TrEMBL record:
Transmembrane segments: none
Residue ranges annotated for the Fatty acid desaturase domain, each copy included: 65-332
Region (Disordered): 358-382
Protein species of origin: Salinisphaera dokdonensis CL-ES53
Lineage, highest ranks first: Bacteria, Pseudomonadati, Pseudomonadota, Gammaproteobacteria, Salinisphaerales
The protein's name: Fatty acid desaturase domain-containing protein
Length: 382
């Protein structure tokens, strides 16, 4: 029996309602406290990101400072995608009234369109977190990441495809909304449908490719090869880091995936419990938290995706306390430990079921008497 089955069977609806009320209270308190320090924080991060980008692009044009330039541009791209883009497009700073930091207007330095990302991530992933066949982030249509996903021979490529996903992460995310497996493998999407859906994706990808590998190298004149190589290295660094952060928060062995039946009459408290069981944190320095967009606090992010991520560290002890009070797990560990556990899972699930020592069942919903949803509704996704 899975952890979620255990809790669904042992908790009363009143207990789930109390868990929901406890987490809602944290969210309301933080939302009501948002103000100048949060606005100053994100504006400072945006300023630093731009400084790293300008400085990096300048230093890349001189051989002696090329390594520093690449490092600076890599930091810029990571900050743009992780701490700024991801969080701004969750609506975490909409309350500021700043058009440049509004989720409806913001676009980021990556191949994915803002609209496609908000559809696959903000809505699909944060609504159906770790629900097999509903959350496309479980394997991105490429990988087998849940025990109850039927094994296919293509999953023997789990490990090399995961490595490829890390290297070209921005482009895999850009085409995620197309769900290419429906065209290439399952034949449920026509060529014409795919071509139409690909038009806005290709427009954004083409724009990014031209910026990094045509326009900026041309502006560098005789230093074009240095700039071309520097942009490629910075993109590679950003891709590998971003993919590692996301995998560490979603796929360590202790993190659960769920059957679609968990969604039936799911109350707010039950939604919160699913977020807890379907997430993992990783520990590190303040710099690591910043460079991960505070997704090192993936548990807190799944619970409160619309709260500014810079607040996750201060509310994490309260989340732990609620977990302890209710006997709920709080999965956390060093970065290396979560990465090792994730790659172990990827390797294990590449094999046919008959070769696996044991199979961890995907959580299924138990009967829920009197399940309700409170007035704040679920989930909380921008």
């Amino acid at each position: 029996m899975s952890e979620l089955d255990n809790h669904l069977n042992s908790f009363t609806q009143e207990q789930f309602d109390q868990i929901g009320a406890d987490f809602d209270a944290i969210r309301r308190r933080v939302i009501n406290d948002l103000g100048e320090r949060d606005a100053n924080y994100i504006r400072t991060i945006v300023k630093r990101q731009r400084q790293f980008e300008v400085g990096g692009r300048a230093m890349m044009m001189l051989p002696p400072t090329w390594p520093l330039g690449v490092a600076s541009l890599s930091l810029s791209k990571i900050l743009d995608n992780m701490e700024i883009g991801h969080n701004v497009m969750h609506g975490q700073y909409d309350w500021m009234g700043d058009p440049a930091l509004n989720s409806k207007n913001f676009d980021w330095d990556t191949a994915d369109t803002a609209e496609n990302w908000k559809a696959t991530h903000n809505f699909e992933h944060h609504t159906y977190t770790n629900v097999v066949d509903r959350d496309h982030d479980i394997g991105y249509g490429l990988l087998r990441m849940a025990d109850d996903q039927p094994w296919e021979p293509r999953f023997l490529m789990n490990l090399p495809l995961t490595a490829l996903l890390h290297v070209f992460f921005q482009h895999f995310v850009a085409v995620q909304n197309l769900k290419l497996e429906n065209y290439l493998i399952y034949k449920t999407k026509s060529r014409e449908e795919l071509a139409e859906e690909f038009k806005p994706v290709w427009a954004k990808m083409r724009k990014q490719l031209a910026k990094d590998y045509v326009y900026f190298p041309l502006l560098a004149g005789p230093f074009a090869p240095l700039v071309f190589a520097g942009n490629m290295t910075a993109n590679l660094t950003r891709n590998i880091w971003a993919c590692s952060v996301i995998f560490n928060g979603h796929f360590p062995e202790e993190v659960e995936q769920f059957d679609e039946s968990v969604l039936e009459d799911e109350s707010r408290g039950q939604w919160y419990v699913r977020q807890l069981l379907g997430s993992a944190n990783f520990e590190g320095s303040k710099l690591m938290h910043l460079m991960s967009g505070n997704l090192s606090y993936q548990i807190e992010h799944h619970l409160f995706p619309d709260i500014p991520a810079c607040r996750y560290a201060e509310i994490a002890p309260e989340v732990r306390a609620i977990c302890k009070k209710n006997g709920l797990p709080y999965h956390s560990g060093p970065f290396w430990k979560q990465a090792l556990s994730t790659w172990k899972r990827i390797a294990r699930l590449s094999l046919p079921d008959r070769l696996l020592p044991s199979k961890k069942p995907t959580a299924k919903a138990a009967p829920k008497a009197g399940a309700t949803t409170d007035e704040e509704s679920l989930p909380i996704a921008a």
